[in-house]
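Escalation from tier 1.

The customer reports that the assembly of two entities below gives different structure tokens on two consecutive runs. Tier 1 could not reproduce it. I'm attaching the input and our single run for tier 2 to review.
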Amino acid sequence: MVTFGRKGAGTSGRKQMVTLRAKVDMGDTLTLSGERSQKDGDEQRTYSRRERWQGKFSRTIQLPFRIDAEEVDASFANGILNIILPRAEEDKPHRISISAN
Amino acid sequence: MTENQIMKQEARDHDGAERMRTQRVYIPRVDIYETGDDVVLVADMPGVDEDGVDITLEKNVLTISGNILPADREGYSLAYSEYREGDYERTFALSNEVDRNRIEATIQDGVLMLTLPKAEEMKARKIAVRSAA
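Tier 1 run:
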């Protein structure tokens, strides 16, 4: 389970609460979820344009093979989440040697 | 969040002029709001850091642009692609309300926040009412 909680800094206390969660289930699905909400603070805001997404999201991705949950490496930079999920040892293809008779 | 809200919008070339960088250009989604003292513009530009952002103001045209560093995918083969990497650019017409000398910009986690203070004369003033003698 990987969790990121970030408070975006803005000028004069305009903060944005962001939470991001990544979870691996049963070794083969990855769920990403998070929320972005506005913290208004004391100021009155009048929006003339509102295009950016707000609110919660959740998404489950089926992975192509089972992965080793202990070795997952997740990093978050400049708004982009990068998750590296190494394939589980037992799920790696093994060569089968064929002996001649 | 609907599909529409997350898909990036691709920019069309300006009057057929070609870009020098061979990257797609997207139009960043923005929120624009006013407070008593400022006009604030917030733009989503994932992948852009301080060095990649460029803000110019010429006459009354404000241009925000963000350049990304393409991710290094050495040794991997693409299994699925939904997210497309690209630069960002968008222009706005600035009104006279804004005090150009005090514009501030910060970028964090790919979100650009531009604070454009309103010029003194434009701020709402409380007008004191005196009774007519």
